[in-house]
Structure formats: C-alpha cells, structure tokens
Amino acid sequence: MASFCGVLDLGQSALRQVHQTYRARRIVYRAGDETEDIDVICDGWAASSVRLSDGRQQILSFLIPGDLVSVATVFEKSQFYSVQSLTDLRCCKFSRAELQKKLTENPKVFERLVACGMAEKQLADQTIVSLGRRNAAARIARLILSLMERLKARGLAHGQSFDFPLRQQQIGDAMGLTTVHVSRVINMFRKEGLIEIAQRQMKILNLSELRRVADER
Amino acid sequence: MASFCGVLDLGQSALRQVHQTYRARRIVYRAGDETEDIDVICDGWAASSVRLSDGRQQILSFLIPGDLVSVATVFEKSQFYSVQSLTDLRCCKFSRAELQKKLTENPKVFERLVACGMAEKQLADQTIVSLGRRNAAARIARLILSLMERLKARGLAHGQSFDFPLRQQQIGDAMGLTTVHVSRVINMFRKEGLIEIAQRQMKILNLSELRRVADER
DNA sequence: AGCCTTCAATAACCCATGTTGCCGAAATTT
DNA sequence: AAATTTCGGCAACATGGGTTATTGAAGGCT
Q1: Is the predicted pLDDT of residue B120 greater than 90, yes or no?
Q2: Which residues of B touch A169 (CB under 8 A)?
Q3: Residue A158 neighbours by CB distance under 10 Å
Q4: Is B178 within 7 A of strand C by CB distance?
Q5: Is A205 exposed, middle or buried (0-12, 13-18, 19+ CB in 10 A)?
Q6: A23 or A4: which carries more pLDDT confidence?
Q7: What is the dihedral of CA A26, A30, A35, A37, to 10 degrees?
Q8: A180: CB within 7 A of chain C nucleic strand
C-alpha cells in the first residue's frame, strides 16, 4: 500500500523526513503553539477542531491518510485550531524551513501545495452549506458520502465499504448536532437499509437513496 | 482613498488592468462558468453563494473592497459557487494568464496571494464554528464584529461606524437563519442599545456587550 | 475474570428557530 | 408622484433538534 509520504511529490532530491506515531485521542497540535514541522498523515484518522470556552468543540475537518495537517501550517507557524488523533496515527514529518526552500526551487511542488489548499477550502465551503442549510439527516448523509469519496480517491475504500472509526460524538461535533440526535439519524439510516456499521467498518447498502437523503433540505 | 487595485502589489511592471462596474444585484460570476479574468473589488460589496435545488441559497462569504473575488479563481477557471453584487460595484480586472506568469517571476506576489487565500480559509473556518455551535444572536453578533474588523483593516470604518448595506435576507442566508429570526435578533440588539442601523449605516453603541453576546453559546 | 470507562439507544420533555400570513414603510421604477 | 416591489416588524403556531436521564453493550485495563 502507498505510504502517502510522497503526496507532495518532492522528487529526486527528497527532503529529510522523520516518521512519528501517536496513540488515538492525543493532541497532535495544540492551537496557538508554534511548530517547525509539517505533518503528512500516512495512516489513521485525525481531526482539526476548535474548543469553545464552555467546553463544547467544533470539528473543522477530518483528516485521512494522504492529508497534510493543514496547508496553512506550511506558511504560518501557528494556527487557531488544534489537531487531535482519532485513531492510532502514523505521520511523516518534514521541516517547514526545508519545505519552504523546496517551494521556491520547484514550482511543481508549489502547485501541488496550492491544489491541496484549494481542496481544503472547497471542503470547508461545502461544510458551510451543510451547516447553514441542511437538516440533520442530510448533513450526516453528506458527511458519509464525502468521506467515502475522499477515501476512494486515495484507494482506501473497497466498493462501498471502508474504515469508519468515527464516534457519534465526533460526527455531532463536526455537523453541529448532539450525540442523541446523531444516534436517532444513524439508526433511522440503519432501519431503512441505507447503511451498515460494524466493527468500525461502514458499508453503504443503498447508495442512490443515501444520495437522495443528502439532497433533501 | 485607496483604490485597492494594488492589493497584490504587483510593483513596477504592473499588469494591464481594466475597470468594470456592476449594478447592485447582478451576477458577477455564475457557478461553473469559465473565466479568463481575476477581479479585485475596488468599491462596493459582493457575496459568494451557492443556490440549492429548492431555491434557498447559502452565502459563503461577503466580499468588501480590497478582496479578490476568491483566490481560487487565480488557479481554477471555474468554481462551484456564484458571486453577486450586493451594491453597485467597481472592480479591477486582471488577466489570469498574465497574473499567473507574474507569480512565477515574482515570489513576493505569490506570497501575498497565498496570504489572501489563507485569510479566506480562516474566515470560512470561523463561519463553520458559528454555524455549528452558536445560536442566532451570537452568529449575528459575530458577523457584525467580523465585518467591522475587516473594514477597519482596510480603512473603511470610522470609529465604530461603517457602511452596512446588507439586507436581513442576506444576513440570514449567510448565517443559516430565516429573515423572521434575523429581524427578531436585530431588534433585540437595537432595544438593548447594542447597535443602531439607519440608512445603510451601522453604528456599534456598546461594543463590549456585543462581544459578550458573540461569545455566548 | 472483574472493574471501570466509553459508547450507543431510547424516552420524555423543552425550547430555539422555522413557517405562514399580514401589514405598513421604504426604496425603486415608471 | 404614482405604481410597484422590496423590506422589515409582528403574531400565532409548528417542529427539528436539544436536554436530561436511564440502561445495557462494548472496550480497556489490572
């Protein structure tokens, strides 16, 4: 299986890389901290999120293998959101300074980085549409479909089945819902034969109907 | 007053630019269309938005003088969202091809463009937090404060007063609320002496209290 | 194996926000 | 300035989703 260290396709003169692992539920990056490294996720899932003063959190995005821990980290030493591992995680670390140097030398790498950044932005925009205008069922259906597409694009889904390590709490924190309501919706999906979840594996049983739900208001 | 044509600071070898005006409520860019130009807003407000199949729309962001009509347009010919003028608009148009050429020649310009892109992303992330975790009053308070900060940074606010051409419908379309509910909240703000709106001018009367409301759940 | 923690399902109740409809004011067009 | 459209305020009512609490199952740890 691809290791995803090479997403940026740095070519012959590859940069020094260090691999690092994190246990599930660890803080990979804490909001406001300064870092000198850029992480690429090789294996496992993570999430970027913001914690509010009352303890609730909003997940901004889920990160899967092949994702950079935010393109912004390449240009800014510190971010206003945190990143936490959702599963055990394997990352490939690059030095920011070295990567930036590479950018000026190799415009192809810069292009690839810009493309990653724009993909992040487009996902964020679609999240805004979900949160602003869709009801709970459509939001969750969209999340599932979007994750499936992203996993497929990286060769991490076989047919309509894929690893799905998310807890209902995390789905709620991403889609602006409570765990109770996420549970209601997921069970409705199950009872209607749209999906099946067992042992952290998601299987989509009725794709066209799930798409229909995702397009409801 | 600054014209904002120079946001990208293209320097001596300035690009050919064309100025264009739009009346209020016109489509500046239609989702999916291919364009060869990049617009910088010199005067007036616009909004990028997505229209759903049932006619409702979600506004992704408000664009004010000095904003690019999305950094993404520099790299991608077509976008999945539209841009509409909210007021009469003056824009400065650059050719994408020429601008891209300039990018490879002048890394400073590239940096500035990346910085614009990251600012867009950060605004989008903050919108996600608002929509996901804040109630109507906090969302609207945050929108007002965020717009004030952005206008101030461009020298377009005098003290706590600034142009505010948004209709309640547009506030609702941006913050995932109905016009009725926007009206309820705005009137509450008025009655509590937080803000004053008259003739498309917003004045913040009690900044600290408005900030407090913005930080409530 | 036993203990403890996390996770999910479910029910009863509540509240923030949506829906519909109406009216008058303000803005825009003619 | 008359006509028309847009806009905002308001009230009555409906509902999607939140809150709280309880229970059992699943998963980790010693």
Answers
A1: yes
A2: none
A3: 10
A4: yes
A5: middle
A6: A23
A7: 40
A8: yes
